[in-house]
Design a protein that fits this description.
Helices cover 62% and strands 0% of the residues. The chain is an all-alpha fold.
């Protein structure tokens, strides 16, 4: 495996997907963070699934880096992020809602309305923020 720490951003984006996925298992946090960042340039389902799994990482830094990478992927990540709003841990739900707030894909509106009732104040905040950013707020009525 190449030394990810020595590569520039363009080179990272050209690495094979398998190389980046393998780097997620590295013991070095920096290597894992770089792999997570580089996966944010990919929209393959395997990359999205791997990033969603990192949302529950014990390292808040790595989990947030994964959320930021999912945000950069954009709309292709929305279905996985919507599913993550139903995760057991609040960290995953909060980071998913935060990513959805930045993506602003209207497909997430029903799930974000449900997240307004989440037990976590962070999830509620980001769900409300997402809806506000989409111009929906509390005026959304489903026919």
């Amino acid at each position: 495996m190449p030394d990810l720490l020595s590569l520039d951003e363009d080179s990272l984006g050209q690495l094979p997907l398998d190389t980046l996925l393998a780097a997620l298992g590295d013991s070095d946090t920096e290597t894992r963070a770089i792999a997570i960042f580089a996966l944010g340039t990919r929209s393959e389902p395997e990359a999205i699934s791997a990033l969603v799994a990192v949302l529950s990482d014990p390292s808040p830094f790595l989990a947030r880096t994964a959320a930021d990478s999912l945000r950069r992927i954009g709309s292709p990540a929305v279905p996985a992020l919507i599913d993550s709003l139903r995760a057991q841990d609040a960290q995953t739900r909060g980071l998913a809602a935060r990513a959805l707030a930045h993506i602003k894909d209207t497909a997430s509106i029903p799930a974000l309305f449900n997240a307004l009732d989440d037990e976590s104040a962070i999830v509620q905040y980001w769900a409300d923020e997402a809806l506000e950013r989409m111009g929906v707020g509390m005026v959304y009525f489903q026919p």
